[in-house]
Design goal:
alpha/beta, aldehyde dehydrogenase (NAD+) activity, 16% strand, 2 domains, Epimerase_deHydtase, NAD(P)-binding protein, globular, Rossmann fold, three-stranded mixed β-sheet
Length: 351
């Protein structure tokens, strides 16, 4: 096992939209010293790709708890950035227990960052939407502990966040819940280059030839450019590597958002480009009927009852924690509307 005082870092999700952009921006971030960056990969092709970014590939079967534990302990990994399986708590507890072993052996402080999603903090999850919620509010954990989710997946996602926090607390690991929102802009990594959220709007339009709203009012949702999302990941890491004491555990929520926009405004901005490209019959926004929701679900490969969760709803969570540690997004919330045409073109070129 490595015994250096410098941290060894493990990144999961390096082939994804967020993880790939994070990895692509890693070397330019001029982070404080660390020992080795490992990237979890599944194939030799991915292994070759992550090496180009200065990461050491680590091929692991996450279903094999013993192998995962051995690898983390043997490599002296003390920071894990977990960017996969937001709705599944199968893998995180094993990694957290392994981090605790590393801490016991090396005396080095250990950290686990779990990536979730803004849906778990929205009205869909049964949380308040009539007041702003700050990600730095010390009572946020208690407020979010007993949600009445509108869909079983959201109940599981909220449960995963609690599992991570509680497992880390039990084993003396510092944990952070990282919350992406509607992320947009071209991914910069070697794998997926397009957003999940904006992709769903475009795919629904392609499949139905129309733009549909799924809410009866004009709800808003937090937004953030993918570069700004990556920069918050990196700012958190910078602070950890410097030895700063960040809020963690039950106070460790970090939303990456520059502000919020109305779904209706996003539909309209993207719809204008979709109409100009001939993807939809016109740019009019229609109310989705039950039959429309069924069809959209087929197109985006989601159950009908999940469609409003995918492309609608209200989330009043606000990003204060990141700004408290020096993170400042480059792009304001209205930029997503100005960049909607480029976003549509990017998605159509990568479907």
């Amino acid at each position: 096992m490595a015994t250096s005082n410098l941290h060894n870092i493990l990144l999961t999700g390096a082939s994804g939209y967020l993880g790939g952009t994070l990895l692509a921006r890693w070397s330019a971030a001029q982070l404080p010293p660390y020992a080795t960056l490992y990237a979890l990969v599944r194939t030799e092709g991915q292994a070759q790709a992550v090496r180009q970014y200065g990461a050491e590939p680590l091929i692991l079967d996450l279903e094999d708890d013993e192998a995962v534990t051995r690898a983390i302990v043997a490599h002296g990994i003390s920071i894990i950035y977990f960017l996969i399986a937001a709705g599944n708590a199968r893998y995180q507890p094993t990694m957290i227990r392994a981090l605790a072993q590393v801490q016991q052996t090396t005396g080095r402080e250990v950290h686990f960052l779990h990536t979730t999603g803004a849906k778990a903090f929205s009205g869909h999850a049964g949380h308040p939407t009539d007041i702003p919620l700050s990600d730095a509010d010390p009572s946020l954990y208690d407020l979010l502990s007993c949600p009445k989710a509108a869909h079983p997946w959201l109940g599981r996602a909220s449960g995963v966040n609690r599992t991570v926090i509680e497992a880390a607390e039990t084993h003396g690991v510092r944990s952070y819940i990282f919350i992406p929102c509607i992320v947009y802009g071209p991914g910069e990594g070697f794998g997926n280059r397009i957003s999940i959220q904006t992709q769903a709007i475009v795919k629904a339009a392609v499949g139905t030839k129309h733009i549909y709203r799924v809410d009866s009012d004009r709800p808003t949702w937090p937004v953030c450019h993918v570069q700004d999302t990556a920069s918050l990941y990196l700012e958190l890491l910078r602070r950890v590597l410097r030895g700063d004491k960040l809020d963690s555990g039950k106070q460790g929520y970090y939303l990456a958002a520059s502000g919020s926009v109305a779904w209706e405004a996003l539909y309209d901005a993207m719809g204008q480009r979709l109409a100009a490209r001939g993807v939809v019959e016109d740019a009019a926004i229609r109310d989705a009927s039950e039959a429309d929701l069924e069809r959209i679900g087929e197109v985006i490969e989601r159950p009908k009852d999940f469609v409003p969760l995918e492309i609608g709803g209200k989330c009043t969570l606000e990003a204060h924690h990141g700004r408290q540690i020096g993170w400042e997004p480059q792009y304001g919330p209205e930029h997503i509307l100005a960049a909607a045409a480029e976003e549509v073109d990017l998605i159509l070129g990568n479907l």
